[in-house]
Amino acid sequence: MQDFVYERPQTMAQAVALLRRGDARVLAGGTDLIAQMREGRRSVGCIVDIKRIGELTGILPLPEGGVAIGAAVTAATVSRSSPIAANFPAVARAARLIGGVQVQNRASLGGNICNAAPSADAVPALVCHAAEARIAGPTGTRQLPLETLFIGPGKTTIERGELLVSIVLPPPSARSAVAYLRFTPRREMDIAIAGAGTYLRLDQGGVIAEARVTLASVGPTPMRAPLAEQRLVGERPTRALLAEVGRCAARDARPISDTRGSADYRRSLIAVLTMRALGDCCGQLGMDLEASSK
Amino acid sequence: MNTLITCTVNGEERTALADTRDTLLELLRDRLGLTGAKEGCGNGNCGTCTVLIDGAAVCSCLMLAQEAPGHDILTIEGLAKADTLHPIQQAIVESGGTQCGFCTPGIVLSAKALLDANALPTDAEIRHAIAGNLCRCTGYGKIVEAIHSAATTLAGR
Amino acid sequence: MAPKPSSAYQIVGKRLPRVDAKERVTGQALYPADLTIPGMVHAKLLRSPHAHARIRSIDVARAQALKGVLAVVTAADFPELPVGATIPMGETGYDMWMIAAVNLARGKVHWVGQPVAGVAAVDVHVAEAALALIEVDYEPLPAVLDIAAAMDPVAPVLHEHVFTKGVEPRPRAPSNVGSRTVIARGNVARALEGAAARQRIRVEVDTAHQGYLEPQAVVAQVDANGFATVWASTQAQFTAELMIARMLGMAQSRLKVVPLEIGGGFGGKIAIHGEAVAVRLAQKCGRPVKLTLTREEVLQGGSGPPAGALIDVAVAADDGGRLVAIEGTYCMDAGGLPGLSPSLLMQASAALYQTPNLHLQGYDVVTNKPRTEAYRGPGGIQAAFAMEQAMDALCQRLDLDPLEFRKRNAAVTGSTMPIGTPFPSIGLTTILQCVGEHPCWTDPLTQGRLPRGRGLALGYWRGTSMTSAGHITITGDGRPMVTMGAIDLSGTRTTMAQVVAEEFGVPISDIHISTGDTKSVGYSDGAAGSRVARTMTAALIEASRDALAQLAGRAAEKLQCRAEDLSYARGVFRSRQIGGPAISLAELMQATLTDGAVVGRGVSTKLPLGVEIGAHVCDVEVDTATGQVTVLRYTAFQDVGLALNPAAVEGQIEGSVVQGLGWALTEGFDYGPDGRLRNASLLDYRMPTALDVPKIECVIVETPVPNVPYGVRGVGEVPIVPPAACVANAIARATGVRLTRMPMTPERVLSALEALARP
């Protein structure tokens, strides 16, 4: 491992200043970064440990009902947080999928995002909740939709001298639900071969007014599935519809073949996972698919 | 580069000269002589390096030594009191839950973190709590049995 | 000795905790990576980036010049060993040319990760930096990565000296087939053709890994007189000593191997992986050297994985459901160097069935992958995956219950084994009876949302005996102090302490037991082949009786009677006269301490075999949309002769089954076209976690082996043999699909289901 300087700033301003170094990297949980450095996949000259910065380590309920999750908050904390469990249960469940207990106790939500793996388990549920990313930089902060942050495997739009501060989740709408399902050969301690997050909002008549489908591990970044989403809006959920939407999502997917799975297998999984995640949403919304399918 | 690191391990304040690149696992094993935590993979995938940081199970191979100051670190060496084994250790001895022993320190500590938070866990909760600790010898059955038995012992106190 | 049931014994056969459990749960157990010696430096190995290449030259000058580097070695620092330079081990021995090449390549590299040089430096970081400065000039050659490609007559040849053995006339050209082995009787072709029902199956098994959690580690020190001490993680300290001595051209008397705790071996730590290199580095730099492999090195060519296989089996029965023929072709992937003998696995796969016609042929095939080594019942898993599926499919064809089919065709004591000799005492019939009466077989399959099925598969492993030695010194307070030549892989210290305690009639807490290094105990073969418990029991009974005879002589003198007039029980010698005097071992040793040591010696060689037989039953559920298989229930029946310690026996069975389930479902090496392993991590090489397996239920059957102390059979290997076939049979019953590729990953299961659904 290449040698580096270790810094532990106490304030955002100090952190942002340190991050202007081209070879500086943010350290939160370290579960991705330290492994990458050891394997020589990432060369780092300066480590900026952000865990002593107050704004980054708390879960803050927002006045209008949403919540801001500090970028350095651990997956374990997210999974156990009562405001998150109450309003964003899919996010809590997704946080429980990252590695095993030991990894969840260290890995941060911000790290899961900034590592920008197409398989990041926390991301689809957050995107389905229309999460936004708050980013601090030398000239102030900016906020943008989380899904626009990713530009390729390991790459985000966060620039040198910038730092992800928090993930802002707007309050969930009435008659809406989010679910995230992934597929791994082992039950835990594994990376998603494919994952699907789904969001449904129904109007008062039980018709789908809004839908989001976010796919993991089937493209260079976590990705929305436009064909699937379009097919949902304006419809009443039935088993047949969900199966068809699953097939649409499989068409939206842009998977590659690698050691974890072939492109074809990933497409098959996307169809199933999307269908099942939508079924989960319908269940949360109290809809009886068997009855509505008749 | 070398750096001095002071941290609390098993209730004692310890200071060591470490390489700036050392992980917590290397600090414990190579600088402090606490070799109970093992390196099975160095990547957080096997759990043999598990220690408790402020009561939470973590992979010490995925944490820098320089992150240690300010935390309370418990390693397997700090669990038994003099000659008295912790009930989890005792239960693993009695149930046959250790074979080659390489995973055992990590499993004991993962189990401790579980039972500290959840006094009478279900089978599924136990298996979830140790899913980050691979064991290649026992097939897990006798370990799960031992953790149940330790939970009963601890709850009866 | 006539075997008695376990109830006849006081300590043997009891469920006792391990005598070495406390050091394990407290972190005190010492493995080589835990050892630090004053002045110790650190070694790293440079490994081949190519699957197949000629080494034109190696220039170590720049590495040597780096500050902090103390020594650099390549194959040029070792004597060149000829092909076929064997050392004794089991039936075939070890080819030292092969072992040397596994440790350091000479002239050519045959797989990615094969070591080409070693460096010792003040710390690991400097050693790593030095590796980058070693300049190796490679001439890359075309690589052959799978069995079928390697057997193609036009394939690039890996070794110019390999002419297939066992083929007449001797081939004129070299090839990638090291040997052909045939076992045959009757006329299989005619029997297959005339049979009422036949079934053929062809399976492909990916290379996997033993998955021991402790990566290989060694510390080597050479003293001022040139005597070397090697602290190793090994299953076989004497074999390691021989290998190191031969590789270095060193006299065996100039070296000792001290086995420390071993963090799992499963066959993968019999051969050496860097130990001799560490010694050479220590000699060169005059400092103790530690070499610890990383997990990536272990997986990426730094250790010997078990063999992949391509196996073709045909079985046939008459209309009464009686087997008439078994035919099998077993092509085994030896990896980059030849010398894998398929004979045992061929026999094992057919051993449990009586058939008049049998034709088995095996091939030892080289490919540009790591040289394979043993894994718990080596080859048995792969062969059973084919044979037990073929038998199950034949039952489906005959519409016959698979248990009933096994009962009709089961080998029995005295029936003919594949090699043509009669079976020694076996309890297969009893096991099958037990299966038929057990709820795991009689309970109806519980129904779920997804399809479920129940599978049955048998397993056989022969094991071996070879040599075990130990001695017992009586301490000043009259207690037996046992030094044995066996490594403790499976609770050996505990079971052997039980044996000695039983012999002496004293509590197990009175026994001090340890594994000897190669200069403190007599030659013993390694902990492999399910041999240790049986043979070490025999050796230590002999040693106990030798010590007791010596003690009886002293006691007779003290009690002033003839030795034959003494009785001995529970640690006390007593004159047989009514009201006669008595003396305890403690009193006797206190009284005679200065008369010299009492040392009882025991050696066991050529003990009769204790063949291992098991039958497994499992229930699985298959998610037909994702291909995921969930094992819901698993029961393993095994004949162990006599369980020296039932808890230890269950531990062996439960662990073995879970390893078997790992290879069955998720564990397989995935090689890229460049011969590089793509899943060289414990994230992507997926060994089962606690969440992936159910509780394994064990049913222990005891049919003692005659002429073996306590009638003990081997235990540790056979329970890994049936799981993959058992799961495959359950999947077939659940879905109608036969899985012929192992591991049966979700993707492969789904793809097989889709193929079945296609018109």
Alpha-carbon Rg of chain C, integer: 27 Å
How would the global form of chain A be characterised? Answer: globular
The residue ranges of chain C in which pLDDT falls below 50 over 5 or more consecutive positions are none
Strand order of the largest sheet of chain A: 4-5-10-6-7
Mean pLDDT figure of chain A: 95
The most extensive interface, with participating residues per chain, is: B-C, 58 and 55 residues
Structural class by helix and strand composition of chain A: alpha+beta
**How would you sum up the major sheet of chain C?**
7 strands, mixed
What is the number of helices of chain C? Answer: 20
Percentage of residues in DSSP E strands of chain A: 15-25%
Topology, number of strands of chain C: 29
What spatial order of strands do you see in the largest sheet of chain C?
3-7-1-14-11-12-13
Mean pLDDT of chain C: 96
Structural class of chain C: alpha+beta
Summarize the biggest pleated sheet of chain A: 5 strands, antiparallel
Quaternary form: heterotrimer
First and last CA, distance of chain C? 64 Å
How would you portray this structure in words?
- The complex is a heterotrimer of chains A (294), B (157) and C (759).
- Chain A is an alpha+beta fold and 294 residues long.
- Helix content of chain A is 33%, strand content 24%.
- Chain A has twelve helices and 14 strands.
- Chain A has helices at residues 12-18, 33-38, 75-80, 82-87, 89-95, 101-104, 109-114, 122-128, 226-232, 239-252, 263-284, 289-293, and strands at 5-7, 24-27, 46-49, 59-61, 67-70, 132-137, 140-145, 150-152, 155-156, 163-169, 176-183, 194-202, 208-216, 223-224.
- In chain A, strands 4-5-10-6-7 form a five-stranded antiparallel sheet. A four-stranded antiparallel sheet of chain A has the order 11-12-13-14, with helices on both faces. A three-stranded parallel sheet of chain A has the order 1-3-2, with no helix packed on it.
- The mean pLDDT of chain A is 95.
- Chain B is built from five helices and five strands.
- In chain B, a hairpin with a 2-residue loop joins β1 and β2.
- The mean pLDDT of chain B is 97.
- Chain C has a seven-stranded mixed sheet. In chain C, strands 9-17-16-15-10-29 form a six-stranded mixed sheet, with helices on both faces.
- In chain C, a hairpin with a 5-residue loop joins β19 and β20 (480-484).
- In chain C, α10 (343-350) packs parallel to α11 (380-398).
- Chain C is globular, with a radius of gyration of 27 Å.
- Chains B and C meet through α2, α3, α4 and α5 of B and α1 and α18 of C.
